[in-house]
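FORM 12-B: Structure-to-Sequence Request
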């Protein structure tokens, strides 16, 4: 399964690397190499960085902290200090470098720099006005969180091409029966 980036924020996209959180979980970051590929797919780095099992564990801790913090923001609950600590530790490190190279923008750094950039994006979201726009996909069994930037704030699915299309097709089939 490939990575998708439909949440509107890198932190939420990292949290979305776990699918079906309520049952039949699918972990897209099963190995350190998956995490390295994710940093490139996310546009954080140009080449996959070296990644260890320890790096993967750190990334998964960040992923789960971001998910819990975003869920709390969505429901109006208080942020857990331990989750804020995980996020702030990652965000406090130097981020990936964004440079102007011969062929345009180049991104460089190691895995921790990529995770720092991701954590900073999540912190900006969770501490700003867009936190009120965090929603959870209504498609079953999707549990992806996303920013509802629609005009009327009525978006129901994380991605219209995937979850939205499946939900509408299922509703159409149900009406036809």
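FORM 12-B RESPONSE
SEQUENCE OUT:
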């Amino acid at each position: 399964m490939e990575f998708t980036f439909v949440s509107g924020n890198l932190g939420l996209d990292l949290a979305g690397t776990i699918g079906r959180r309520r049952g039949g979980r699918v972990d897209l970051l099963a190995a350190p190499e998956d995490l390295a590929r994710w940093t490139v797919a996310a546009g954080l780095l140009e080449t996959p960085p070296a990644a260890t099992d320890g790096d993967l564990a750190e990334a998964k801790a960040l992923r789960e902290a971001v998910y819990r913090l975003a869920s709390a923001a969505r429901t109006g609950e208080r942020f857990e200090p331990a989750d804020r600590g995980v996020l702030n530790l990652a965000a406090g490190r130097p981020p990936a470098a964004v440079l102007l190279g011969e062929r345009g923008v180049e991104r460089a750094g190691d895995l921790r720099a990529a995770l720092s950039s991701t954590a900073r994006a999540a912190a900006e979201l969770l501490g700003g006005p867009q936190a009120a726009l965090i929603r959870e996909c209504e498609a079953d069994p999707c549990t992806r969180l996303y920013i509802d930037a629609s005009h009327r704030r009525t978006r129901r699915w994380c991605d219209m091409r995937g979850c939205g299309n499946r939900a509408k097709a299922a509703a159409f089939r149900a009406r036809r029966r």
